[in-house]
Write a structure and sequence with these properties.
This protein has 253 residues and is of the alpha/beta class. The protein has a single domain, classed as Rossmann fold. 36% of the residues lie in helices and 7% in strands. It is built from six helices and five strands. Strand 4, helix 4 and strand 5 form a beta-alpha-beta unit. Helix 3 packs parallel to helix 4 and helix 5 packs across helix 6. The longest helix is centred in the middle third of the chain and has 22 residues. The protein is globular and about 65 Å long. The two termini are 14 Å apart.
């Protein structure tokens, strides 16, 4: 693969990626308390690891990660050292990144990978989704004029709803687990427990310090003793395969 990381890339290579509309992959995470045995950057590291595994399979542009997100203080208060960014601030930050990409000519095939909170429609996902859709609406009005959707040229809009070039698919968010989907029926969601630790340890061997579990009685962390690296590898492979299918690269699965 010829995948590139934006931060280490030169103009010639980036212009090639732009001309060929390579997928743009943006990892988004948090700096959040994950009990005594997990690093604070757990969510961001997980998103980064997934994106880099995808980059081994298909030519793409790997963007620098967004380390700080809408962590909230749901797991513990600020004394637990989580760093929380208000979701409205995160939305504006993501909007600025996406808008810059659009201005540069990357107006298709942008993918945001979120590894925080297992359900859609929580603050982190909403901030990214809203930033994306706000930008798309603005861009379409600027380029197609007011009433762009109602124009007869868009009569086939709904018949092409799931096509890559449909505006709603120009920027896509990929949530953490989406356990209702077939490709993830085997995998569950948790926070610093068996499932998350298996996934992170598979991506970053040595990152989980199980010997430190005795330092805490956090209920959500206790299942970490069941961590299974092979399970984590299967989880990673399933997510990579699903992404390749979503972008129409079944041949690489």
């Amino acid at each position: 693969m010829s995948s590139i990381e934006y931060a280490y890339t030169y103009p010639r290579e980036l212009e090639k990626a732009k001309a060929e509309q390579w997928p743009i992959l943006i990892p988004v995470g948090t700096m959040e308390y994950h009990s005594a045995h997990c690093p604070f950057g757990c969510d961001t590291l997980a998103a980064m690891g997934l994106v880099r595994e995808i980059a081994k399979k298909v030519d793409c542009v790997v963007m620098p990660p967004v380390w700080y997100g809408a962590a909230s203080y749901a797991v513990g208060g600020p004394e637990k050292n989580s760093l929380h960014v208000d979701c409205d601030t995160l939305e504006q930050y993501m909007y600025c990144i996406l808008k810059s990409l659009f201005k540069a000519g990357f107006t298709r095939n942008i993918h945001i990978f979120i590894c925080h909170q297992t359900e859609d429609y929580n603050p982190q996902s909403l901030a990214c989704m809203k930033a994306a859709r706000k930008l798309i609406f603005e861009y379409l009005e600027e380029t197609g004029g007011t009433g762009w959707w109602g124009n007869n040229d868009n009569a086939e809009f709904y018949s092409q709803l799931f096509e890559k070039d449909n505006p709603w698919n120009w920027i896509r968010t990929h949530g953490p687990l989406k356990t209702k989907r077939d490709y993830l029926k085997e995998f569950k969601g948790d926070h610093a427990g068996k499932w998350e630790c298996s996934y992170l340890e598979a991506l970053y061997p040595g990152s989980i310090k199980l010997d430190r579990l005795s330092e805490t009685d956090d209920w959500f962390a206790q299942s970490a003793v069941e961590m299974d690296v092979e399970l984590g590898k299967r989880h990673t492979e399933a997510r990579v395969k699903h992404f390749l299918q979503e972008i129409g690269r079944d041949d690489l699965c």
